Amino acid sequence: MSSVSSTPLASPSTTPIPIHPKSASMDLTYNVNTMEDELTCPVCLELFADPLMLPCSHSICKKCLQDILASRKKQSQDGLECPSCRKQHSVSGEKISRLPRNLALENVVFRYQEIKVQTLTKSRSLDASFEHPHSPTETPVFDAPVFKDEATNENCGLCETKPPAKAMWFCQQCGVLYCKVCLEKFHPKRGALARHKLTRPVKVSQEVKEVLCKDHESEAVSIFCRVCQVLVCPLCVCEGMGKHSGHQVVDQETALKQTKASVSQSKDSLEMMLSKLSEQNHKLEEVLDETESLHRDAAQKVEYQYRRFVDDIVATLRQQKDATLAHLGELKSSLNKQLRTQIDDNRRRLKRMDNMTETCKKMLEEDGTNTLLERATEVEPIRKHVRQFSEHLTSSEELCESVLKDKTIQKELKSSLAQFRNKTESTIDLFLRNESHRCTEIRPAFQSPTSPGKVDAPRIQNKCLMTWGFNSTTFTAEQLSRSVAWTVTIEKNSSHIGDVKTGYLFGVGVGSEVLNIKDLVGMNRNSYGLVCSGGNLVFVHDSKVESLMPLENLPLSVTMYVNLEAEDYIVLAYMITSTSWGDTLQGKKFVSKKMFKDAIYPVFTVSQRVKIQFPTYV
C-alpha cells in the first residue's frame, strides 16, 4: 500500500464551489473513490480501524490481524504474510501489543470521514439550489454523526436550555458531550480543535470512576484485603493504625485477575454442568417421547388387531383388549413417573444454575476496575453452590445412565402387539373348541337348606331341586377342583300354577362363594349364570343382563361347562336345548380368575313354578 501522505487532503474551507453541481459531483466522486482506496484495509476492505504498522511499513486493522493469527494458529502455522506485499513476518498473537499504532493513518481516516460527510452534505445543498434557485438557502448541516445512532440517555454538557438537548458527539480530548448546536458554537473544527477526535456519546458512560475508601473518605482504594474480601486504601493497612493491619493484601490488579479467574472458572463449570444436564434432559425427553409413541402405536395396533376379530367374538376380544391396554398404561405410567421425577428435578437445578450463570456473566461484564472487586464477597457462595451442583450432577448422571440403559419397559411395549395377538389367538382357540371333550359330567353334592321342621333333611329328592312355599331358593354345590360339566332339565312344577313368561323362574351358574338361600344367581357380584327371567333367557352378572333368546316353553335342558385350564380366565360355556322347538344355542364367556381366587361353586336357583332335574344316567 502506498503512503497515505501522497494523497493531499483538501480542507473544506478551501474547496472551491463549482459553478455546475453536476460536474462538481463527478469530480468529488472520483477524488473520494481514489482516497478511499488508499485508506482501505486490504483484508476486510473497510476503512482502517485501529491500524497497526507491520515491519514492512504496511498497515492492517488490529482486529483483522488478530483473526489472521488465530486462523493460522488453528492450522499450526507460524508467522504472518503481509496482505499487501506478501512479505513474511515473525508476528504472533503475543507480539501484537508490540506493533506500533499508525496514529497518522488513523487521524487521516477520521478526517476523511468528516470531509466526506461535510462535502456530500454541501453537494446536496448545491443540487437543491440548482434545482430550486428561488428557494431560500438553508443553513448547511455542520456535521453529521459518522456512526449509526445508538440509544443513549446522555445529555449535552453545554446546553443552557431546560432540559438539555440530547448529546450527539463526545470529544475525547476535551472530555465534553456536545449536541449539534453546541458543537458548531463551542467546538469549531478549526485550528487545534480540528485534530480533536469526536466519538459517539455512549463512550463517556464507560469512564472508570474513582472509588473512595469508606473509612478514609479522602483516600482512593488501591489495595485488596484477602481476609475481608474488600477494597481498602493504604491507610487501612498501616501497622497499628488501620483495621486491616496484619491482613493478607494484594494490589487491586492482582486481586482483579484472581477474582476474574475464580468467577470465570465458576462460570465455565456451571456452563459445563448446564450443558450436561441439558443433554441429559434431552435424552430423557427423547425416552419420554419414545415411550409415549410406543404406547400410542401399541394401543393402536392392539385396536386394529381387535377389530379383526370383533365380528365374531366382540365381548371376548373387548375384554382381552381392555386388559392389555390397562397393562400398557401401567407400564407407561411406571416409566413416565420415573422419568418425570428426574426431569423435574433437573429443571429445578437448571433454573438455579442458569440464574447463577447470569450472575457470573454480569460480574464479568463489569467494566470498572473496582466494581467487580466490590462484589468479591459473592464469589465464595457461588463456588459453594457450584460444588453442590457438581455433586448433584454426579448422582444424577448415574441415575440417568441406569434409566437410559434399562429398556425393559420399552421392549415390553414393543412386544405388546405380539403378546396381544398370541393371547387373542389362544382365546379364540378356547372360544372355538368343544368343551364337552375336556369337562367330565358330574352330579354335584349339595350343601342345601333343609325342609321346614326337619333339621338335617335336604330338600333333594330323586335328583331334583325344588323350593317350598312361594319363595325362590338357591342351592350351592360342592367346591370345584377340576374342569367339570353338568346338565339339568328345567320342568314345570305340577304342584304350582303360574305363568312361566313372568318373574324370575330359575338360574344355573357359578359363584365365588356359598350363596345365601335367598340370593338369586347372577343378581349379585359373586355369581354368574344363565337365567330365565321375564320370559327371556339371559346371561347375568351383578344384575347386568345380556339377552340370549326368548323362552318359548318348558321343559328345556341347560348344560354348563367350567374349564379351569386357562391361565388368566375361567371359561364358562353353556348349551341350551329346547325340546319344544329343537333349536340349540351355544355360548361362551371368559371370567377373570381374580374373582374366583378363593373357590368356585356350582349354584342353582329355583322358584315355586319350576323344578330342576338331574339326568338319571348320572
Q: From the coordinates shown, what is the CATH architecture of the largest domain?
A: Sandwich
State the end-to-end CA separation.
Answer: 123 Å
Structural class assignment:
alpha+beta
> What's the structural domain tally?
4
- Strand tally is 26
List key phrases describing it.
618 residues; alpha+beta; Herpes Virus-1; 30s Ribosomal Protein S14, Chain N; eight-stranded mixed beta sheet; 26 strands; elongated; disordered N terminus
Structure description:
There is one protein chain. The protein has 618 residues and is an alpha+beta fold. The chain has four domains: 123 residues, Herpes Virus-1; 65 residues, 30s Ribosomal Protein S14, Chain N; 157 residues; 177 residues, Sandwich (Jelly Rolls). The chain has eight helices and 26 strands. The strands form seven sheets. Strands 11, 14, 15, 17, 22, 23, 24 and 26 form an eight-stranded mixed beta sheet that branches. Helix 1 packs antiparallel against helix 3.
Ordered list of secondary-structure elements with their pairings:
Elements: H1 21-38, E1 51-53, E2 59-61, H2 62-74, E3 80-81, E4 88-89, H3 103-131, E5 169-171, E6 176-178, H4 180-186, E7 198-199, E8 223-225, E9 230-232, E10 249-251, H5 252-364, H6 379-405, H7 408-414, H8 416-432, E11 440-441, E12 450-451, E13 454-458, E14 460-461, E15 464-465, E16 473-476, E17 484-492, E18 504-511, E19 527-533, E20 536-541, E21 544-550, E22 556-563, E23 569-578, E24 584-592, E25 601-606, E26 610-613
Parallel strand pairs: 11-17
Antiparallel strand pairs: 1-2, 3-4, 5-6, 5-7, 8-9, 8-10, 12-13, 14-15, 15-26, 16-25, 17-22, 17-26, 18-19, 18-25, 19-20, 20-21, 22-23, 23-24
Helix pairs in contact: 1-3, 5-6, 5-7, 5-8
